[in-house]
Amino acid sequence: MELAWNSWNSYDTGPHRDLVGELAAAVQETTDLRFGLYHSLFEWFNPLFLKDKENNFTTQDFVKMKSMPELYELVNRYKPEVIWSDGSGEAPDSYWMSKEFIAWLYNDSPVKDTVVVNDRWGRGDICRHGGYLTCNDRYNPKALQNRKFENPMTIEKPLGIRRKQT
């Protein structure tokens, strides 16, 4: 399977099948469910990301060579109607080129009429933008909200992997 941004995928390494494609087809062709994908904007240990971080996110090598090509390809290939972005972190949305991607997504993409996104597209965006809000872990608005939101709670408090987690 040709991927513009990466040769490491389940088709070329592993089971030699397009697992995401098979799941997308199963959901889209046999159910009334909306198919969605999780996408982590950053990779904590990717050398390109680490170099951009070292440059205080004034360079965008990781975004231009990995993150954005990956997102465009995921949308064009699998046509997800939900994109759950995970990229609030340290870098602003300008680093991630989020506005440009979301403008394309809602105006020109193959899912422009049906897609919905959350709000984790850069530092400071959480609980402010998006088709629905993904506020902090264990978010409790304490009152009825005008905006749709989700609360993806962790089992334990930390987000990420902990080797000694119980």
TrEMBL record:
Membrane-crossing residue ranges in chain numbering: none
EC number: 3.2.1.51
Coiled coil: none
Top-level taxon of origin: Eukaryota
Domain (Glycoside hydrolase family 29 N-terminal): residue spans on this chain: 6-163
InterPro entries: FUC_metazoa-typ, GH, Glyco_hydro_29, Glyco_hydro_29_N
BP GO annotations: fucose metabolic process; glycoside catabolic process
Keywords, sorted A to Z: Glycosidase, Hydrolase, Signal
Cross-referenced Pfam families: Alpha_L_fucos
A single Gene Ontology CC term: lysosome
Molecular function in Gene Ontology: alpha-L-fucosidase activity
Keyword Hydrolase: yes
Keyword Metal-binding: no
Gene3D superfamilies hit by this protein: Glycosidases
Family: Belongs to the glycosyl hydrolase 29 family.
Protein function: Alpha-L-fucosidase is responsible for hydrolyzing the alpha-1,6-linked fucose joined to the reducing-end N-acetylglucosamine of the carbohydrate moieties of glycoproteins.
Protein name: alpha-L-fucosidase
Organism of derivation: Mytilus edulis
